[in-house]
Amino acid sequence: MTTSEPRQMTLVGFMQAGNVTVYSGSWRYPSADLSFLELEYYLRVARTLEQGKFDLVFFDDRLAMPGVYGDSVAEAVRYGARPIKLDLTAILGGIIGATSRIGVGATYSTTYYTPFHVARTFATLDHLSGGRAAWNVVTSVNDSEAQNFGMNQHLGHDERYDRAEEFLEAVSALWDSWEDDALTMDQDTGLFADPDKVHEVNHHGKWFDVRGPLTVPRTPQGRPTLLQAGQSGRGREFAAQWADLLFTAAPGIDVAQQHYRDQRAQIAAAGRDPAEVKILPMAYVVVGETEAIAAEKEELFLHRYVHPMASLTLLSEVLNYDFSGHDLDDVITPDIIDSSSGIRGLALGVRRHLGREDITLRDLAAHRATLLQGPRFVGTAEQVADQMQEWFLGEACDGFVIAATHLPGAFEDFVRSVVPVLQRRGLFRTEYEGTTLRDHLGLPRAQVPLVAPATPPLTGASNAVMPRDPSCR
Fold first, then answer.
1. 232 labeled part of a ligand binding site
2. Is 117 annotated as a binding residue?
3. Residue span of the structural domain in which 198 resides
């Protein structure tokens, strides 16, 4: 997209590979499809979003059942509070075979995976999808995940980001270890790839030792696209340095506008062009044939389908704090928040949203489990488009991460009714103009840094080109 062309929204579909969307009551909605253990469930959603010309569908992930509340997973299992999380690699593989343009993304943790594994996974997905892969970078949140990976306790907040910084440095070096034209595949001379253009990484840091090079050549996007959703001060610094898409949580337009200004300034301070980073708040959309129908649906989502115990279970998970010893009407004190290694920005966001300091456990739990943690655009298709347009043109965001209230209906309603309105207003594409995710986002292909490689090119016993063996096919 050139600077002379009108600015257009970025739209991302937010998914979970399990029994619920990010809205924990979604499985109880009467028209919800509960075939989440079948591949076709995910392919149907991806094809719907591609029909709507979405930039990307990406999947959130957790590496444990919610088990912090009462030191047990019983309530998560009993009330369907995200007890199911399928492996994402298989799902993304299915989606890239069933679609041709939409970006495909997955969450992988810098705390419990290794740089080589993540670099190879997403480089492979980028090649097989023709340049549509995205990695949602997370540091993970709680002790339940740690205990599934042989540790007793999750790393502290700052330690997680220290590790994540080094993780990204190692992954980036692996993605850059093949130069663009290293792969020759000259069948006549027998030269498969130029060893002068393939480099060992030899990363040696506090957290990782990685030799390299990567076993996957440089990808169609140069590097897969990076998403990040840090809300704390350290998380925002990390996102300013690394993210191509910044996934935010802003309860209202005033907060979003301030966050947008602050984050763009932070991106510039990190030496990057703010125009090459998309800032996207998560939003729920509730569409009705009339305003009254939409309002009635919203009321059902807010008050009928989320069990209070599911709310507490998920809150304990995300804050890494066992709330089983508290009453729902207990005030959340600073010492409770300070004792948590979870998402520190959550309590601050709820205070801003409610406009008061004395928030209760009930307030916090409701925001985490229902539709209160982000903006809700509710009404007819025209009214929803009006609300989205106000945020977008008011420089509160570059687009939205759309979270489904239920599947597949929420995305089908949005694509069939709201997307055409946005297209008529010139706010969103009518066709994909490129083939890669970076093309959709208007971002340049990632280039190998214009510096000498940290290590010399590969050497071996011989660089001679061997004559072609006619017996080889």
1. yes
2. no
3. 10-307+375-441
